[in-house]
Design a protein that fits this description.
This protein has about 200 residues and is of the alpha/beta class. It contains six helices and seven strands; from the N terminus they run ααβαββαβαβαββ.
Length: about 200
């Protein structure tokens, strides 16, 4: 018998109490705490931003002098914020020129991605789709991150994981693998973090 997925766990209850649209907020919060990802005044790209928990956290962390460009196929469910630019677009086809036109910026300090495919129930298929999304996020980080900037992206662990890690390693000085405590026990998602973008490197 398949194990029933828990939907009302501690983190889900906490997110509801703290008025976040999703429990994923606590994954980014832990990553940020462990590697000091975000600073006041940072300019950040949030890929796969809907419903908006990561965007809300990022907007608070960067403060009024920072900017968060939140991108997703679906509109965000959070209230508008003065330091957030919402862009409804397909990350797989979005170009850096289009992002520049929408935000007025060519270079960012941090690129984050919580993108995940619509799961099919077939683990290999889902892992393959997750890998494609992850590598697209890495490619955008290569184009958009300033030298010394940072990246974090979600991926489903599978046989392509080492290729994904190598992709991050080629662009960044340091690579960390983090599985936040708030990831559900039955999930095979994990986060790859790239710290210190290498000068002149793109995918």
């Amino acid at each position: 018998m398949a194990r029933r997925r828990r939907t009302n766990d501690h983190y889900a209850r906490r997110a509801k109490k703290e008025h976040y649209p999703a429990r994923s907020i606590y994954k980014l919060e832990e990553i940020d705490r462990r590697v000091r990802l975000i600073k006041k005044g940072d300019k950040v790209v949030d890929l796969g931003a809907a419903p908006g928990s990561w965007t809300t956290y990022l907007a608070t962390k960067v403060g009024p002098r920072g900017v968060v460009a939140a991108i997703d196929l679906q509109p965000l469910t959070i209230d508008e914020q003065p330091n957030v630019i919402q862009l409804t677009a397909d990350v797989l086809t979005l170009t850096s020129a289009e992002l520049h036109a929408a935000t007025g910026r060519e270079i960012f300090d941090v690129v984050v991605s919580d993108m995940a495919p619509h799961t099919s129930g077939h683990r290999f298929v889902d892992q393959s789709r997750s890998f494609d999304l992850f590598m697209r996020a890495v490619a955008l980080a290569g184009e958009l991150c300033r030298p010394g900037g940072h990246f974090v992206g979600k991926i489903f662990q599978g046989e392509d994981f080492e290729l994904a890690r190598q992709g991050v390693r080629e662009l960044f000085d340091k690579v960390r693998v983090i599985r936040p405590a708030s990831v559900r026990q039955e999930s095979y998602e994990i986060y790859l973090v790239g710290l210190g973008k290498k000068a002149g490197r793109t995918v």
